[in-house]
Amino acid sequence: MINRRPTRIAAAVLGTALAVSSFSVAHADTAEITPIEQIQGTGGSSPMAGQDATVRGVVTGAYAEGGFRGFYVQSAGSGVDPSGQASSAIFVYAPDEVSSVNVGDYVQVSGEVSEYYGLTQLKAGSVAVLDEPAESVKPLAIPLPSSDAERERFESMLIEPQGDFTVSDNYTLNQYGELSLAMGTSGILPGERLLRQPTDVFKPGSDQAKALAEENEQRAIVVDDGATLNFTTNKNKDIALPYIDAQQRVTVGAEASFIAPVILDYRYDLWRLQPQGQVIGADDADIAVNFEQLESEAPQEVGGNVSVGSFNVLNYFTTTGEMLDGCKYYTDREGNPINVRSGCDARGAATSESFERQQSKIVAALSKFTADVVVLEEIENSARFGQDRDAALANLVNELNDEAGQQVWSYVPTPSVVPADEDVIRTAIIYRAEAVKPIEESVILEDPAFSNARDPLAQAFQRVGGNQNTRFLVVANHFKSKGSNPDDGSGNADTGDGQGAWNEDRVSQAEALVGFADELKELRNTDKVLLAGDFNSYSAEDPMQVLLEAGYADLGAAADSQSYLYDGLVGSLDHIFASEELAGKVTGQDIWNINAVQSVGYEYSRFNNNITNLFTADQYRSSDHDPVLVGLQLDKKN
């Protein structure tokens, strides 16, 4: 019968790379030792899979809790020469033995070799801690390879990654305790540290877009927490999230520097860097990476004498779920409803208490947003709930003025003619009355192209103290989203070129928008037009080409950042386009990175999801899109 508990023996590993634990037991079982390199082999999988083997090595990482249920061992004395063709380390799956093994132990392990979803491992039958001296493992200081074949050479080895790293994704940090880094800079987009959406810079389906997609995969690496926990499940919500708390953030775009060795690992179809022990909380001793702390109290200065912005307010609904029948909710770790999941027309907060948290963040962000005119997306269409259409909008403006301590903000009221069939969310426009004044009433475009999107809203403004020459038009937009891939044969299915579903409809919406703007120029006696909002299209995609070909300039393209993060790639779905007559009066532009770059864990919708309280009533993660801002110089003389 195999003894499945480890034999404890006094161990001494020579060198200083890993600390060593001492124990006292007799001796290890005699067995033929197989070099770990022989088990790993030089291919993508072990040539010894299914065979029994006995190995010796130094424990470099141990994980008694968190789901790994095992440890890594590496050949004694290895880590000096990076030229080896086979890895000198292996993961040992040992759920019964791991709690008695420590980093630095010199061990002998016998068991069956297997491939666990691409990771070569040894399923332990016996584990013994040896009393023999052994040379220490030294972390291998190497630039991280970009190809799978090169990474296989170092699978499960202790390394010190060399080079520059930038946080590129944090979306699953609050769920799985993982984040992604981008290595170095792009060879295709010189100086680009992040991973760009290919269709944000190149024509969809083009060779250039495909090349960038391939490079993105090669530059990406996951930093894990030494666990497989899902922190959103009830049983794990009382375990502190790794790496972050209310003060320490892991922000996309931040520099990341390694302060301790890590293990190159492969799990869940991705290459990962594992700490040497499970990370619990933001200050755990096993944290191996330091993250630059980025703060942004206000957008960059954009100059000019009038500024215009776009802000997605993430389903700002004063009608909460508790006011309606049938609502189903996302809940916190105590089962309290936080935000609406389905079952009713409300899309925002579940309760008044949750709404106050949501509103506090939106008000904090808009109060620091320096635009004179702000296009809003995803605000409640209160008419759908039997109220005045502007009720939620008026509430937001009142809150902004309360925060300012004076009447700073006004909103553009609903026009006299409104489409009969509108969505539960709408676009809106607010403005600083000291800077601009509306000219005539607003206009809503009613066009079949927008039957599955939000109808554009237009308003003419004139600078306070200015004349006809300072007049300009703002059109608020929110095109059809990329999700919910249709199968109705409409031509809107996702073709796989990077543009997502409903692209044909977004093209039609762009075409209708151009026609709408042309009509408005005549109606409002100005050729200065801004088309602003959430277009749900990246910069090089077909709908945006419609606007560019019509003579509009994408002002956000000149900014040094993007407005959205999806699947670890940054790109801009939010844009401000200027007509030819207005483009020459642009003085600056900025995309204020306060939302998309932050972990979703900071959203009001994730309140009390974890024992670590991440909520703060500030501008960070007030929405999932970043605001866009442009400056204009509008003078009385053209």
UniProtKB/TrEMBL annotation:
Source domain of life: Bacteria
GO molecular function: catalytic activity
Annotated transmembrane regions: none
Source organism: Glutamicibacter arilaitensis
Domain Endonuclease/exonuclease/phosphatase: start-end pairs: 339-625
Residue ranges of the region described as Disordered: 481-502
Keywords: Signal
Protein name (database record): Nuclease
Signal peptide positions (record): 1-28
